[in-house]
Design brief:
Layout (H helix, E strand, L loop, with lengths): L3 H15 L4 E6 L21 E7 L2 E6 L2 E6 L5 E6 L11 E7 L2 E6 L6 E6 L22 H9 L5 H6 L9 H11 L12 H20 L39 E6 L2 E6 L6
Helix pairs in contact: 1-5, 2-5, 4-5
Length: 274
């Protein structure tokens, strides 16, 4: 699933192509992907301009003159932007949403059809709507004291805690493994045993790892691509994730894989001792 760096890569890619475009037509191909509105409700976007492309954690926000769409890519969601005269397959069975503007044709595809789309009026702020209001702050702007208090209340594995978007947002399976390795914390260490110093290091390392991943346009392990022809290169920087059986870069021990909270988890038993 795309995590914060991957969604930020998508945001920047779209921002460079479709800002100030005016919507001429919009088509939703699969109704189940639109959660809070009807198919006809989307027609309110016709004749509105695309004002900005925002992001909160793993959610992409396309802001129009009077409304905004919140899109969660889930596992396979991806955007393609074509010029009006480009030859494209408009009968693509994986196409979820098509937005025709005065300059471009914007296609949102999802092979698995797990992606979600929600429509809101600009009268409803990000903090007020029932999706974004539930999401905690990202490492870039989180209150460390508050985060520490939340973690200390949890008698569950720190890996599971860091995946909880209501506690800290933007981290997913890949980057939690990388952050815990950089912080030298065992993924099964309980939240109640985490120190304030640990939390400071978790946040610091999250920011550093995110910044590097964003610079490298995200991590491409299986099928992530921000859009047509754009793939991330950050996989070459991974220290533990997907490296089972390989040597640790820090101590030369063997990287181990276990399951924590139902998620495949990679770590170094020597560097991240219990």
């Amino acid at each position: 699933m795309p995590e914060l760096p991957e969604v930020e890569t998508v945001r920047r890619s779209l921002e460079n192509k479709i800002i100030n475009d005016k919507v001429k037509n919009i088509k939703l191909q699969y109704l189940k992907n639109l959660r809070n509105s009807s198919k006809s409700d989307l027609e309110v976007l016709i004749n509105q301009e695309i004002i900005s492309i925002d992001r909160k954690a793993k959610h992409l926000i396309i802001k129009f003159t009077n409304n905004y769409l919140i899109i969660h890519l889930r596992m396979e969601g991806r955007f393609y932007v074509y010029k009006i005269n480009d030859q494209i397959d408009l009968n693509d069975k994986h196409m979820i949403l098509k937005i025709e503007t005065n300059n471009n044709i914007i296609i949102f595809n999802d092979f698995r059809r797990f992606a979600t789309i929600d429509l809101f009026s600009n009268d409803i702020t990000y903090e007020e709507n029932d999706i974004l209001s539930k999401i905690a702050n990202e490492p870039f702007d989180i209150d460390i004291d508050l985060l520490f208090k939340k973690i200390k209340k949890k008698n569950v594995n720190i890996k599971t805690i860091l995946l909880d978007q209501t506690i800290i947002s933007g981290l997913g399976n890949i980057y939690v493994d990388e952050v815990l390795f950089s912080t030298k914390i065992h993924p099964e260490k309980k939240g109640v045993n985490i120190t304030k110093k640990d939390v400071n290091e978790i946040v610091k390392n999250s920011i550093n790892i995110f910044n590097i991943a964003i610079k490298n346009k995200g991590t491409t392990i299986k099928s992530f691509t921000s859009q047509l022809g754009v793939k991330g290169t950050n996989q070459s920087n991974l220290k533990v994730h997907q490296r089972k059986g390989e040597k640790c870069y820090d101590c030369n021990s063997t990287i181990t894989k276990i399951v924590v909270g139902g998620r495949g988890t990679f770590f170094c038993e020597n560097c991240q001792s219990k």
